[in-house]
């Protein structure tokens, strides 16, 4: 499940990157850093998940993956609007994705059966919560 969600996140971020305003170097750079982070996470999940059921996307069919995404990542199904995506809209969609990802990993922590998976998912949840706070406080200027 975690691999499928991460793969979908990478695809969504790449779509945002492709559709974002190419002249907005700040937004482009930000989205590229999110893609790199998810790609790093993908490798980490693949390494950690060898032989652990909750990591194996092959056990999920397309309808199950879509159901997970619909339940856990509703921003995936938000219309991107007019092209190119401007900074405000791109940052909003990135913020939604980070928030949904943190929530997803919180649920994965609750459902993990083995301690190493629980530890990994907890670390990923904390990472997403920290990044979400950074996005809200620094990038979007919503800090106190």
Q: Strands, helices and their partners?
A:
Layout: H1 2-19, H2 25-48, H3 62-72, H4 87-111, H5 115-139
Helix pairs in contact: 1-2, 1-4, 2-4, 4-5
Q: Approximately how much helix is present in the residues?
A: over 70%
Radius of gyration: 15 Å
Distance between the first and last residues' Cα = 36 Å
Low-confidence segments, given as residue ranges, are none
Examine the coordinates and then state which fold CATH places here, giving the name of the CATH topology.
Ferritin
- What is the averaged pLDDT score? 85
Oligomer: single chain
Total number of β-strand segments?
0
Number of helices: 5
- Judged by helices, strands and strand pairing, the structural class is mainly alpha
Strand content: under 5%
Please identify, by name, the CATH architecture.
Answer: Up-down Bundle
Q: Give the SSE order as H and E letters.
A: HHHHH
* Count of spatially separate domains: 1
- The first-level CATH class is given as Mainly Alpha
Largest sheet: none
Shape: globular
């Amino acid at each position: 499940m975690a691999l499928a969600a991460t793969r979908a996140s990478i695809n969504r971020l790449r779509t945002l990157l492709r559709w974002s305003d190419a002249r907005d170097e700040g937004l482009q750079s930000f989205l590229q850093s999110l893609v790199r982070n998810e790609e790093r996470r993908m490798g980490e999940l693949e390494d950690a998940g060898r032989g652990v059921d909750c990591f194996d996307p092959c056990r999920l069919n397309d309808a199950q993956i879509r159901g997970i995404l619909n339940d856990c990542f509703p921003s995936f199904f938000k219309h991107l609007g007019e092209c190119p995506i401007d900074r405000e809209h791109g940052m909003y969609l990135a913020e939604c994705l980070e928030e949904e990802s943190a929530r997803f990993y919180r649920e994965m922590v609750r459902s993990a059966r083995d301690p190493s998976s629980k530890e990994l998912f907890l670390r990923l949840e904390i990472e997403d919560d920290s990044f979400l706070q950074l996005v809200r406080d620094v990038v979007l200027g919503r800090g106190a």
